[in-house]
Amino acid sequence: MPHRHKKLSMEDDLNASLRPLREKIDAIDQQLLALLNQRAAVALEVGEVKKRFGAPVFRPERELQVITRLQEANAGPLYGDNLAAIWREIMSASRALEKVSTVAYLGPAGTYSEQAAFSHFGQSVTGQPCPSLDEVFRSVEAGGADFGVVPVENSTEGVVSRTLDLLLQSPLTISGEVALPIHHNLMTQSGKLDGVTRVCAHAQSLAQCQHWLTANYPQLERQAVASNAEGARLAAADSTVAAIAGDAAAIKYGLQIAHTHIQDDPHNRTRFVVIGTLDPDPSGRDQTSLILSVPNRAGAVVKLLEPLARHGVSMSRFESRPAKSGAWEYYFYVDIEGHRNDDKVAAALEELRQHAAYCKILGSYPRAG
Questions:
Q1: Is there a contact between 343 and 311 (Cβ–Cβ < 8 Å)?
Q2: What tens digit of pLDDT does each residue of 51-71 get?
Q3: Does residue 274 sit in helix, strand or coil?
Q4: 345 CB contacts (<8 Å, ≥6 apart)?
């Protein structure tokens, strides 16, 4: 009995110590609520002005400038990344007061593509899972979605070839990017591997975990499926199936995680791009994506890229893809630093067009943080 009295006394002392701090937090929350609603009211006024002038609701360059300014002014103890996440949701909720955007992504729900979409736009959008990358593009082109989010390259496995091909064919442009850390988990119904005979995941994810799987479970058959979420769905329905996916898929499909962080590269990241018809203004931290081809003659590629060096424009990515013409011709996918409206970038692009057999500007947009 004395032990019980001592425990109750400690709880009373704890509650007494916490009560004034909790009351202070409650008071601050009331102030925050009032200020957030004041901010939302001004955002509605901004929306009315945009509507009069036909301006788009979503301005990624403006949102980046807001977050950057707040991070620079932040004195802590909140970390800058946490601050960015908070403000992204505030701006997402404010945008939804004007218009709830629909964002297409490679589904089903629970994929990394869905995570990338919400990371970029915030939670106050309507997600539209699509069965293929082709369908993401088709939905946005047809007006069924305002934006699409598609993977373009992975730090381990390289480019997503189908996305590059679709960017070449589609009239859509790029208005943003997301660099998402990819943490793969091995999951099953029980959280154990007893009785499991195969592992299902997207081909890229299987490739990103191949060394770990070989070292730890070489006996498991590896089956490529349309997405990691589809693998999780199969695992939820069959106790002999394991899946490779992220935390969101485990929660959605009721699976238990047997092993975490099984990707071979601990710094594994996938870059996604946002597609649509939006043309962002310069943000001060931009890049421009191009597709180029050159006449089939010696030195043509060097001559094509020379204007970039002469005007001091840095190139951050250079990929080649066959033109599928049967004539050993190639398209080059190039990312350069800066916005196409920047003076030096505009001058370099003007010269570059003169040397290119084909030049398509995919978009200028804020770089991922």
A1: no
A2: 999 999 999 999 999 999 999
A3: strand
A4: 288, 311, 313, 336, 338, 339, 364
Reported as a pLDDT band with limits 50, 70 and 90, residue 1 is low
Active site residues: 270, 272
Q: Which residues contact 131 (CB under 8 A, 6 or more apart)?
A: 107, 226
What are the chain's domains? 22-96 (1.20.59.10), 100-182+269-273 (3.40.190.10), 185-259 (3.40.190.10), 283-366 (3.30.70.260)
Residue 185's beta-bridge partner residues?
245
Give burial (CB, 10 Å; 0-12/13-18/19+) of 278: buried
Query: Can you tell me whether residue 352 is helix, strand or coil?
Result: helix
pLDDT per position as a tens digit, 83-118: 999 999 999 999 999 999 999 999 888 888 999 999
> With 80 as the cut, is the pLDDT of residue 3 above it?
no
Residue type, 288: T
Kindly report, residue by residue over 304-329, the tens digit of the pLDDT.
889 999 999 999 999 888 877 655 57
Structure tokens at 42: 């001004």
